[in-house]
Amino acid sequence: MPSTFHIGFDDTDSSEGMCTTFLCYNLVKELISDTRNELLDYPNLIRLNPNIPWKTRGNAALAIRLRSSLSKKNLFALCGKYIKRFATSPRANAGLVLFEGEEIPAKIQDFSNRAMYSVLGLVEAREIVREFCLESISLRSNQGLIGALAAVGNVLPSDHTFELIAYRKSLSKPRVLDKSKIVMMSEVTSSKTFSSYDSEYDRIMIAPHGPDPVFLGIRGESAAAVKNAFNILCPVENLRGWMIFRSNQGTGEHLREPISLDNPKAYYSGKTLGTVCEAPRTQIGGHVFFEIENEQGKIGCACYEPTAVFREFAKMLTVGDVIEVGGGIRKNTTLHPKVLNLEYFKVVKLAEKFTSSNPKCLRCGVSMGSMGRGQGFRCEKCGQKSSASKHLIEQPRGLTEGRIYIPPVRAHRHLTKPESRFQLTKKRSIRVKLINGWES
Ligand code: ATP
Description:
The protein is an alpha+beta fold. The chain has helices at 20-32, 72-86, 106-115, 122-131, 144-153, 179-188, 223-233, 309-315, and strands at 3-10, 37-39, 44-47, 60-68, 95-100, 135-138, 161-168, 193-194, 197-198, 203-204, 214-220, 239-247, 269-282, 288-294, 297-303, 322-330, 339-349, 354-357, 369-370, 377-378, 385-386, 391-394, 404-405. A hairpin with a 2-residue loop joins strand 14 and strand 15. The mean pLDDT is 93.
């Protein structure tokens, strides 16, 4: 009798090369070449808390969900073989977890949920592995066990996106891509793909620059959409093959939990509501800082230079504005307190902002001079006096109530919800056929 299995793995890569999705690509390729295995979903590319400092790049973990008539032992041995073959870097703290069963236990789902925004420990991961009799392997520091377990538990039940990742044959050859084709693809498929091209800064966003095997990645709303977009770019040279992943990228899933300002925890991600209590100021390097407060406490908010135009919007905030902010808590240092590194802000209520000017002389029409606090005004031209008060002029704010402000595409994190997705949420259960391409 075939069984349902959920395989999670993480941390097989390092900054010198490799990519955990490439391991997944190779493992899936072997799994589907055996008729005893049937994939139940696209491989899941789960991005975890992006504010974890020990991540290599985008804090990705992977899950494969399948029905198989292989024994648990044999399936686990096969997956373990791939982990050992690929996770060879001394910095790859790889983890592999295998769960057998239809329904993921609530405790594992809860662990995954917390992995999105908090910092979890190995002790808890190991306890869960023991409690549910999961098969597992972990290498070196064993840290990858956390991501592997979190990947198993996140079945992407609501909002989700897709990414087609193509891999290159030779790592020594540069990634050659036709920029004009990418710009055209991004325009033609704009309602169904996202973050391929940053038109504001004329920057291609689909190809990495590191030594890893990824050729390109196209993100979008459906498997058909990303495949169609890829077809527009083909043929490309040095292509090994490609695979479509279902993912939480572009969903903002890490920013759903509230951050408490009475004791915000370092590296946590989330959101909070507050009133601007210290106006934005620009510091050396072009970084913008301001402070918000609510009944729980106060925190500084930071918008760094690469967020470009986002900083300009942040600079328009003023004391008294009520805003919702989302981001990650930067650890305090001996010199600086904890700071919320901003990933978005939403204007809830704008404070009125006024400038004042002295009244004009009724005879000459020129601005009168003040005779001192509470002493009224005098026209310097004709000497006419006036007890009128200063004129208050309401300033246009440049910000819009209800609008969400986010950094430009080039400064997005994998989980950032792009503007094109603001109106979308998906709720559906997926049992789909895999659309994959392998090298011939
Ligand atoms: P890439 O994006 O190239 O795959 P990466 O950025 O995913 O690399 P990893 O090398 O996988 O980085 O390292 C991330 C490590 O952090 C993993 O060991 C993972 O288990 C661990 N981790 C992920 N989320 C959490 C969390 N919320 N709490 C504690 N550890 C975590």
